[in-house]
Design goal:
Strand content: 5-15%
Order of helices and strands: HHEEHEEHEEHEEEHEHHEHHHHHHHE
Number of domains: 2
Number of helices: 15
Shape: elongated
Largest sheet: 10 strands, mixed
Structural class: alpha+beta
Helix content: 40-55%
Radius of gyration: 31 Å
Length: about 500
């Protein structure tokens, strides 16, 4: 079949569809809903599960956690890391090119006039080189800045740079007031870099010797880059062996504490993967229902043209030509539905992002990019073929002589067509029941979750934030000293206060 013949078929199909505007509009809207839902979900799946992380060779970047003692922390599979154990892992392991710790910090930006509380990430000097990310402006931290008294430097995130410095490209070298102290701005990260997601700025860890010796308090996350010749199982075995040695050397602090390695992508999207795949399966059922609906409409319309098709066949048109003609009509409808579905998908993406909220990492930009457009085009063609397959096969097997004798009267051919339509209706109802049952189970689960008691009373509660800049002169210094003492107490109690992800604390645990 030549390209000219194919274009001729599409032009002829377009003329037929123009003569049936009601049928065409109904089919396009139905397909647009199915294709639009699939496009919206796929755009999220593509950004979260398929698109590589915005780092160089991201498959070798790992998240390293402690595994806590089962007796003390039942149900938890990983836990945040203590400084001394991290330093031992880094010095004793040979499976990693680099290993870097990071933790949560909070600062008050500005002075007494316009103070603003922000969340920051305190990172080791190897943090940015490990991720192999280059700053948009300036530089990242030098090793000698990751020392006590030398850490008054800061790297800004792209959004913070835009919000507080109006995207001034001469910002490097300027100072910013954090907790009443001047920090020198040394760099600005690109817009795509948002790790950890809660960090608006980055400062050096600058651990003191006292902090570096701490084993009993677990307040930090750790990332590492595997060597190219090492797989994750070998690295896991090595860290487990190191953890066993540390347990023997420091039983008071490390008894029962192990190590676990998780690929960074899995760590970032692990808890949203199942939800996205369930949604993708659900909208696939929606598309199948739409295809069955359009197939039913196309079958009814084709039944009305059975004499025309019989005449074309008697004049020499092969069954393949008839099949191609019917498929060309449904593919045209489906492509038009895909174009409308792309428009609907924009609103669908916004809704999905709102529903999933912070379960999607902030740096994963969800857009209708070229892979999504290619998926939509492919889906449109496949949907058109599925919608036209049953009518086309049905009429390529029809008896030409019987169709010519019947003309426009209702006969056995029409009865058989009615049987096919009833089969399609049954299929639509069956698929709809599957979706309804799944939706009912999901609603029931959400309802049951609402009745779960968190163990604390949430009535008459409020959240208070304190700012040292609200205290004048000497009172401000006393406030800071008192706050540091209370922060030390909170770190000792931190294992009892677990967070799925900061901002509230650098202590992290997960089931």
């Amino acid at each position: 079949m030549s390209t000219r013949d194919l274009l001729s078929e599409f032009r002829f199909s377009l003329r037929i569809l123009r003569r049936n505007p009601g049928f065409s509009a109904a089919a396009i809207v139905v397909l647009a809903l199915g294709i639009g839902a699939n496009t919206a979900i796929f755009s999220v799946v593509n950004a979260v599960l398929l698109r590589p992380l915005p780092f160089d060779d991201p498959s070798r970047i790992m998240q390293v956690w402690h595994t806590p003692p089962a007796q003390s922390f039942p149900g938890l599979t990983w836990f945040s890391v203590s400084p001394a154990n991290y330093l031992d892992w880094r010095s004793q392991s040979s499976s990693f090119e680099q290993m870097a710790a990071y933790g949560f910090r909070s600062f008050t930006v500005g002075g007494k006039e316009r103070p603003e509380a922000i969340q920051a990430a305190a990172v080791a000097s190897d943090f940015f080189p490990l991720l192999r990310v280059q700053p948009l402006l300036g530089r990242t931290f030098a090793p000698d800045e990751d020392r006590p008294g030398q850490g008054h430097v800061v790297v800004l995130s792209y959004n913070f740079w835009g919000d507080h410095f109006a995207s001034d490209r001469n910002v490097v070298g300027r100072t910013i007031l954090l907790d009443g102290e001047n920090y020198s701005i040394v760099g600005v990260m690109p817009e795509t870099f948002r790790f950890p997601s809660w960090g608006k700025i980055w400062v050096p860890l600058a651990w003191t010797n006292e902090t570096r010796a701490v084993r009993g308090n677990h307040n930090y996350g750790v990332i590492a880059r595997l060597k190219k010749s090492v797989d994750i199982r070998r690295a896991q075995a090595e860290l487990s062996a190191i953890s066993t040695r540390l347990e023997q050397l420091y039983p008071e602090d490390d008894k029962g504490w192990g190590a676990i390695i998780i690929p960074l992508r899995e760590q970032l999207v692990g808890d949203v993967r199942a939800a996205l795949l369930v949604l993708l399966g659900a909208v696939a059922f929606v598309l199948l229902i739409a295809c069955a609906n359009v197939a039913n409409l196309a079958l009814a319309k084709t039944l009305a043209r059975r004499k025309e098709i019989a005449i074309r066949t008697s004049l020499g048109a092969t069954r393949f030509v008839v099949l191609r003609q019917i498929l060309a009509e449904t593919v045209l409808l489906s492509v038009a539905g895909g174009a409308l579905g792309l428009f609907l998908a924009r609103f669908g993406v916004t809704l999905i992002v709102k529903v999933l909220g912070d379960r999607i990492p902030a740096f994963m930009q969800i857009t209708l990019d070229i892979p999504v457009l290619a998926f939509t085009l492919l889906l449109s063609v496949v949907a058109g073929v599925l919608a036209g397959l049953i009518p086309s096969v049905r009429f390529t097997r029809a008896d030409v002589n019987e169709a010519l004798k019947q003309g426009q009267t209702r006969g056995s051919s029409d009865a058989r067509g009615g049987g096919t339509r009833r089969l399609l209706v049954v299929s639509e109802v069956a698929l709809s029941l599957v979706l309804l049952i799944g939706a009912g189970l999901m609603i029931r689960s959400l309802w049951e979750l609402r009745k779960v008691q968190p163990g604390v009373s949430r009535r008459s509660g409020c959240f208070l934030s304190r700012s040292p800049d609200a205290h004048p002169g000497p009172s401000r210094n006393r406030f800071r000293r008192r706050d540091r003492r209370s922060a030390a107490g909170r770190r000792r109690l931190a294992p009892a206060l677990l967070h799925r992800r900061p901002p509230g604390s650098a202590n992290v645990g997960s089931t």
